[in-house]
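Final report, results section. Input specification for complex C-07:
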Amino acid sequence: MNRLPAPFLAGLRHRLFWPCVTLALLCLVNFYFNRGFFDIEIKNGALYGSVIDILNRAAPLMLVAMGMTLVIATRGIDISVGATVAISGAVVASMIGGSLVIQNGVQSYVSNVPMPLAILGALAVALLCGLWNGLLVAGAGMQPIIATLILMVAGRGIAQLITAGQIVTVYYEPFFFIGNGFLLGIPVSLYIVAVVLIALLLLIHRTALGLFIQAVGINPVAARFSGISARALVFWVYAFCAVTAGIAAMIITSNVKSADGNNAGLLLELDAILAVTLGGTSLAGGRFSIVGSLIGALIIQTLTYAIYSLGVPPEINMVVKALVVFAVCLIQSDALRAMLARHVLRTGEAA
Amino acid sequence: MTVEPILVMQGIRKSFPGVAALKNVQLRLFPGEVHALMGQNGAGKSTLIKVLTGVETPDGGEIRLKGELIQPTCVGEAQAIGISTVYQEINLCPNLSVAENIFIGRFPIRGPAIDWKTIERESQTALAALNIHIDVTLPLASFPVAIQQMVAIARALSTAAQVLILDEPTSSLDEDEVERLFQALRQLKQKGMAILFVTHFLDQTYAISDRITVLRNGEFVGEYAASALSRLDLINTMVGREIDEASYAAETAAQTGSVAADPYVSACGLGSTGTMRPIDLDIYQGQVLGLGGLLGSGRTETARMLFGIDHTDSGTIRVGGEAVKLNSPRKAVQHGIAFCPEDRKTEGIIAELSIRENIILALQARRGIFRYLPKRLQRTIADEYIQQLGIRTPDAEKPIGQLSGGNQQKALLARWLATDPKMLILDEPTRGIDIAAKLEIMELVKAQCRKGLAILFISSEMSEVLRVSDRIAVLRDRQKIGEIAGKDADEQSVFRMIAGAES
Ligand SMILES: Nc1ncnc2c1ncn2[C@@H]1O[C@H](COP(=O)(O)OP(=O)(O)OP(=O)(O)O)[C@@H](O)[C@H]1O
Ligand SMILES: [Mg+2]
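Structure output:
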C-alpha cells in the first residue's frame, strides 16, 4: 500500500478539515447553479456580490455562535439567545424610536435617547440576561438546558412587554448604518464580527482562559481540585454569550429597522448550536474551536442561500436544509468514518 | 504440563502513534490457575488486556480460546465468549445504582418487566461473597473508590465463565479486602477458571499466583513458575537492571532533618456533621504526617476538609499561624496547599488535555487567568518534570489520557510539585505505580520534605505509611483515636490501637 505524505495526513486529521471541506462543497454547488456566485463588484464604493451577501447575513449568527462555543465548551448550552436578541432588540428600538424633523427646511433625525446610550442600555440588558442564566447554572447548579429554558420562554414575553405588543419601527437614519452600512467598501457588521473575534482569540490564546474553559468542560471536578474557580468561569461564560446575542440584536434590529418581539432571533439558538457542532466542537464539552464555529455559521448561511437561489419551494426548504445538515453531520462523525475505514480495509485485504 | 492452555495469545503487536506498546507479546492461560502479568508502568499490560477483550484492535498476532481463533471487537463480544474483565480504570456508571451496575446489560426479565427484586437480591449476594454489605440501591458514586472497585470485581465475578481478567483490582483496597478477594479467586480457581491478574504489589503476586508473565517496554521477557522466581529476580527482570528494594527502603526510612517549631497547618476541632467528627491535626514543615486507619476510617475525608473541598461546620484551621477559612480548593491552593486526590480518573486528570497542560494547570490556576505562563515556559516546566519523574511518553503534547495508569499518577504529582507548595496532601500517591517508580517517587517526596515541605500522607498500605511517616495519626470510624511517633510504630501497634478503640 502506498502511503500518503505525512503533512497531507496531518491536514486530514486537522479539526477544521471537514468543516472547510463542507463549506467549499456548498460554495461549489452554488457556483454550479450560478456562475456569478464568486463575482464581486464595486457599486458606489461598496463591495457587492453573493459571497459578501452571505458574510453579511451570517454576521449575527457568527456572533452568537462565538458565545455559544464557550458555553458548550464548558459542557453547557444556552437556548435563550434568541429570546435575548428579542429583548435587547426591543430595548434598543424603543429607546431610539426616532422621528424625522424638518426645521427651516432642513431634515434631521432625532432619537428619543442618544444612540450610544440606547445601544449601551440594550447591551446592558443583554448582559443582565446572561447574568441571570449564569446565576441559575453556576450559582444554583441547575441543568443548563432547563436554566436557559426559563429565559427562552419568558424572554419573548418580556420583549412584548417592552414594545407593548407592537412591532416598534425605528426612524433614525444613523442607526441603520450598523446593519446596512459600509466602511471602506466592506459591510459594517463584518467589522463588528472581526472585533469580537480578535478580542476573543486574544483572550483565549494570550490568557489562560482557553485552558481553563477546556479543563472545566472536560473534567469539572478535577479542574476545581486544581484550584480553578470553575463556578465563576461558567458564570461569566453565560454572561459573555448573552452579550454576543445583544450585539447580534443590534445588527438584526438595524438591518430590518424594527424590533419584533415575536420573531426577532427566532430559532437563532438552534442555528447557533448547529454552527458550533458543524465547526467541530463536541456538545460533550472540552476542546473547542471559535474559528470552526464561524465556519459552521457560514455553512448554514451558504446552505440557506443555496436553497433560496435554487428556488427550492418554501414549503420544503426546511426539509432540504435538514437533509443537508444530516449529511454533513454524518460526514463529520468519527464513528462513521472509522466504520468506513474499516470496511475499506477489509475489502482491501480480501482483494 | 498435560493440561491444554485455555487461552493462547501469540505474536501480539500493537502500536499507537509514537509508541510501540506491544511488540511480539505472548501469553498462555491454563484453566485453574492464577496468572500474574507483571511489568513496569507503561510496559503494555493494560494494552495487552484491551487487545484480548476487544477494546483495542491488535496490529498483528493471534488469540486462541480453547484452540479456536477469536477476534473480539467489543467488550460485550468478549463477555459472550466467557472472558470478563475488570479494567484498571473503573468503568462503571457512577449515577446508576450499585445493583444496576452489577447487572447492566443482562437484566433478568420477568413477564413484561425487569425483575428488580432478583437484581437487588443477587447483587447483595454477589457483594456479600466479598464481605461487602451496602445498600445496593444507592448510586455507585456515593461510595468510596475502594467499594466501587469491589463492585466492579463483583460484577466480573458474577459474569465470569472461563477467563477472568483483573487489571490492578487491588490498588485501593486494604489488606482485609484483598484477602477476601483472594478467597473468592481461590474458589473460582478450584472450579477451573483461568484468572489473569495484574498488580504492582509483589506480596500479592506471590500470595496468589501460580505463574508469572513479565513484560518490559512492550516486549515479552519470559514466563515463569511463581515458585521458581525469587522476588529479587522478578524485580530485576521487570526493570531490566539490578535494584535492591532493601537499600531503598533503608534510605527512605532515614528520619528527616530540621523541623519547624510551629506547625504549618494546624487544624483544631475540624469537623463536619455527618461525615467527620472533630479532629485535631498539626502538620509541620519538613515532616511527614501519616494517616493510619482502615477503609472508611475518614482518611480521605480529612484530606478533603483540609483542602477546602468538603464543607466543615466546626473547628478552625491555621495556616502559618494565621486563622484562615478554607472553603474552596482555590483558597487552599493560594495558601500553598496541594492535594493529589486518590481517584485520578475522576478527580485528577483532564484526559483530553496534553501532559504539558495537565502539569501546569494548578500553577496557572494559582497565577490566575491573566498571568498566562508563556508556552515556552510551560514546555520547560513539563519537560523538566517528565524527566525528573521518569514519565514514559514520547513528548509532552500527548493527551494525558493516553498515558499508562502509573504515568498519569506521576504527571499529577508533577502538577502539584510545579506549584512549589508548602504542604502536600498525598492520598494514595503510589496507587498503580510500579515498584521501582514507587521507591523513586517516595524518595523524591522525602527530598522535598527535607527541603521544608509539609506532607500529609495517606495510603492503604500500612507498611508504606510506617516507612515514610515521622508521625502517624490513627483514625477509626471517622474520628482520630491517637497519634504515634513514626519510629516507635509498627503495624502491630497501629492495629492494636485501632482494635483497642473498638472495645
Ligand atoms: N490510547 C492510547 N494512545 C496512545 N498511546 C497509548 C494508548 N494506550 C496506551 N498507550 C501507550 O502504550 C504504552 C503501554 O501502556 P499500558 O497502559 O499498556 O501500560 P501498563 O503496563 O498497563 O502500565 P501501568 O502499570 O502504568 O498501568 C504506554 O507507553 C502508553 O503511553
Ligand atoms: Mg495498566
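The two ends of chain A are 12 Å apart (CA to CA). The pocket of magnesium ion (ligand 2) is lined by residues B 45-46, 88, 167, 404-405 (CB under 6 Å). This concludes the modelling results for the funded period.
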